[in-house]
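INFO batch 0412 | record 1 of 1 | parsing
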Amino acid sequence: MTEPRTEGRWLSLAVLVFGAMVIGLAPILVRLAEAGPAAVGFWRLLIAAPLLAALAMRPGAERPAGPPPRAALLAGVMFALDLGFWHYGIAFTSVANATVLANLTPVIVTAFAWIFFKQVPPRLFLAAVALAVSGSWMMATARGGAPGINPPLGDALSLATTLWYALYMIAVAQARRTSGAVQVMLWSTLTGLPFLLAGALLLREPLLPATWAGWAACAGLGAMHIAGQGSIAWALGRLPAATASVVVLVQPVVAGALGWALFAEAPGPWQALGGFIALAGVALAQWAGRPRQPIASSP
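INFO prediction complete | emitting tokens
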């Protein structure tokens, strides 16, 4: 009876791709939010928190049987670091570069899952990861369009985000073993809130958006957090973390296209080629990681 399992995997992949495409909107909204980078992350989580709480308390929703899982709390800390570093990267470099470098997580996630969780990836999967990462790196290193106000600093901050995002995905995958997606999202969101607020205060950022358009961008980030990260958290309960980390590489393509359309950050030919190579790596990784049909045994 492998057909339902295969159908469930493709549903999980579809939800994961949807979540990754929604998250691709994040750097655009961060640019439009008109507040400090860490403050924008704080508003994103604060706006999302009551909606997540309402989803967690709805009739028929899964109720936590005890204290929040430690993995969910760890995910909140890692996500706060992820948002803080990434939002500063977006402020200093191009949208495409910030998103690409922040999504070079497959190497870390695959290595971590291989070493600690004994999830040995197929050789073809490793080759696909290398292909996707190479394409992403090509997008980041090839200059085209507006590079940002301080590209080296922005690229370094975005690259550091890779570690936090990888640890976040691993922590969410572990928390999903015992808790539902909404519960994990709620606990991680509540945990990350004070860290982002403290960072904004320590760095003396402007806490409030300057215009109603800035507030609308923050509200959009809150809704995107629920739809995008919620979809990714749901899929991480059904897919290996290494596989999921490769699929979310569609984020840079979405962000790069929107950065081109809205901020005139036109990609050069090498950046465009890198985007196609990254997507090819994603497709190859999914083909390599597909479940194999068992050989039918005789009665």
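INFO post-check: Residues 12-58+66-120+148-238 form one domain.
INFO record closed
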